[in-house]
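Posting this for the archive.
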Amino acid sequence: EGSVEVAGFIPWVDRKTYLRKIGVVTGQKSGLMWDLPPIDTFAFNREIYRIPKEKYNRTISEFTELLDLSDIIKRPVRQLSLGERMKCEAVCALLHEPEIVYLDEPTIGLDLNAKASIHKFIKKVNKEKKTTFILTTHDLDDVENLCENITVINKGLIVYVDSIKNIKNLVSKKRIVNLVFSEEIEREALKDYEIMEWRPLGAKIRVDLGEKSIQDIITSVIKSVPCIDFMIESIGIEEIISQIYKW
């Protein structure tokens, strides 16, 4: 029981009007016609959404330049790489300038360059057109790069809702220190620290800067083990989410 409203519409009551207000991009299902070039699907969508031709041409030109699609949109979809296809999927979902766009695992399987390009595109559209993006993903790089707010769901229950900024503040005083040893040592040598990973010639420990300064901690560690190198890292969002799942 309950109710749902999206952009002021009840989806199953105002279906046609509602669908004109949203766009969808999914990494698992294509909205493009497999044997035709993407530009043909774009033209087809222009008719469906009744986009004025001048506005359509302006949008296509803008998106093509932003995503470097000038040659890609003229080739059959079946000849495109996954990264090229996902760029075109994004264009297809945004042609009619929806108020809300749902992104379901939009960067799954993409290489770093394709992922960065899609991130840049989404940020630009969000900033300039004020489009709201709702992202569902297991790729926390997407979350960290794109989202202002985050909802963590565990076994069907919402276990955390807050801003990305605040979720990082949960561990703002914690750091990870990667250590490299000059010789093999016993794990017991670092018994006073929280050991995250252990290797014969190295270890990864988590430290709390609320208790001591990083300088004091490193000095203490170097006195305990034959350390020849170390690297200090902030705790990534993956680790933070992992801890939330354990609450």
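The chain has nine helices and nine strands. The radius of gyration is 24 Å.
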